[in-house]
Design goal:
Distance between the termini: 43 Å
Strand content: 25-35%
Radius of gyration: 27 Å
Structural class: alpha+beta
Strand order of the largest sheet: 6-5-4-10-9-8-7
Number of strands: 19
């Protein structure tokens, strides 16, 4: 005996179809056992060398004859036992060869769905789907899918998260995008040349090993120091150029689209209403050209760069799109701390500034590398006043604003009376901002 209506609902429930990843996936996963051996050799090179010298040619050939098929079998089995399915309420991913793991990703908790294509994946015509979910620090991913299948699945997931019915979500397709700006490669290259951190790491990579050689005359010590320093210098110059090459910002109903990368192409989305903080960074050597870099904090997402370099006016227009209703305060409106703040932080106190408008809490730090952080009042989770003994002596205090991305923006060394007034007023502004905020929903 069944309750009327329940039987019909069960009968009408759509069957869940599980799918597999792209057939090239085993080739990628077969590298895992080989990577373990390489990691062991790098971790203990002396022991690895001793073990290799003991092996005869015949033993080495036999070992490869066992290792290669075993790695191929491992890649095939891990691919075979991996499935995913989109239900009415969640994306379900089942993985695991020996120990089974099932990830249930609630569609309403999706923050962003990004597509990345490493160089070899572009050649093979496949892509990786990365999912930002509220409350998790690590992205779940589906690697790899066919490039077209990845785009279709991304569009379906975003449509479901936006509230479209499961029966029609797959028909919505990818939302149209309008290009807002593209960063020319020449401008990106010049901006990296004019970045002080790049030259500082290069100088350290040249000077420190030379000093160590004069002091120790140990080649191993010099190599152990020089390799990481040159690696850091390369990552901050060539690495950034490769990652931020052909940076394009587009606007679509599901948020701002970011496409970039010379070798590995990334297709990211800045979800609407999820941006907690925007920072406008202005290095010293960029000021003459009027360039800035725009960084952001998004709740539950690892996206951290909005614009690698752009003229300030263009950057402010893009900021207005990710923070609707917010206008970047002009430099003249930022008030400095009182002069006695110099007793707490000599010279550098001149780099601090603060402006509070009807829409945003804006705090500036840095003397050579200025950074202006903007926090909409609706995104403020808590506000605190901090005052150490030395600051209490000179009548100044810090006002710290916490956001939903677990980050804090600090207005440093304000007059103690002003800080107390900021503390009281910010709570009221946050309540008003949350009441008037737009809904945090896709395609709203």
């Amino acid at each position: 005996m069944t309750t009327p209506g329940v039987d019909d609902a069960v009968r009408e429930k759509r069957p869940v179809t599980e799918r597999r990843l792209h057939p090239v996936t085993p080739l990628r996963r077969a590298w895992a056992p080989v990577a373990v051996l390489i990691g062991w050799a790098v971790h203990d090179p002396d022991q690895a060398q001793r073990q290799l010298t003991r092996l005869t040619t015949t033993t080495l050939v036999l070992a490869l004859a066992v290792l290669v098929p075993a790695a191929a079998l491992y890649g095939f089995l891990t691919w075979w036992f991996t499935h995913f399915a989109v239900t009415d309420t969640e994306l379900r991913i089942r993985t695991g060869l020996v120990f089974r793991r099932t990830a249930h990703i609630r569609l309403e908790r999706l923050q962003a769905v990004d597509i990345t294509q490493p160089l070899l994946a572009r050649v093979a015509g496949v892509a990786k789907l990365k999912l930002d979910v509220i409350g998790t620090d690590k992205k779940d991913e589906l690697a790899f899918l066919g490039a077209e299948e990845a785009r279709a699945l991304r569009a379906e997931l975003l449509a479901r998260a936006a509230g479209f019915a499961p029966e029609t979500a797959h028909e919505v397709g990818e939302a149209p995008s309008r290009e807002l700006l593209r960063v020319p490669p020449g401008v990106l290259a010049v901006s990296l040349v004019l970045t002080g951190a790049t030259w500082a790491t290069l100088a350290a990579a040249v000077v420190v090993p030379a000093v160590l050689w004069l002091a120790t005359e140990s080649a191993w010590t010099v190599l152990a120091t020089a390799v990481p320093l040159f690696g850091a210098a390369g990552a901050s110059s060539v690495g950034r150029f490769v990652t931020e090459y052909d940076w394009t910002v587009g606007e679509s109903p599901d948020g701002l689209r970011l496409d970039h990368g010379l070798l590995d192409r990334a297709h990211e989305t800045v979800p609407p209403g999820r941006v907690q903080t925007v920072r406008i960074v202005e290095p010293l050597l960029w000021r003459r050209r009027g360039w800035v870099r725009v960084e952001l904090d998004v709740a539950g997402s690892s996206n951290s760069v909005l614009l690698p370099v752009a003229p300030r006016e263009v950057a402010e227009s893009v900021v207005a799109r990710v923070l609707p209703g917010v206008t970047v305060p002009p430099r003249a409106s930022l008030s400095r701390p009182p002069r006695r703040a110099g007793r707490c932080v000599p010279v550098w106190w001149r780099g601090y500034g603060l402006a509070v408008t009807d829409a945003v809490f804006a705090a500036r730090t840095g003397l050579f590398r200025r950074s202006l952080a903007l926090v909409p009042h609706a995104k403020v989770q808590s506000v605190r006043l901090a005052q150490g003994p030395w600051e209490r002596l000179w009548g100044v205090a810090d006002v710290r604003v916490d956001t939903g991305a677990n980050k804090t923006v600090t207005a440093r060394l304000r007059d103690a009376g002003e800080a107390a007034e900021l503390l009281r007023g910010q709570a009221a502004r946050s309540r008003t901002g949350r009441r008037d905020a737009r809904p945090d929903r896709w395609m709203a």
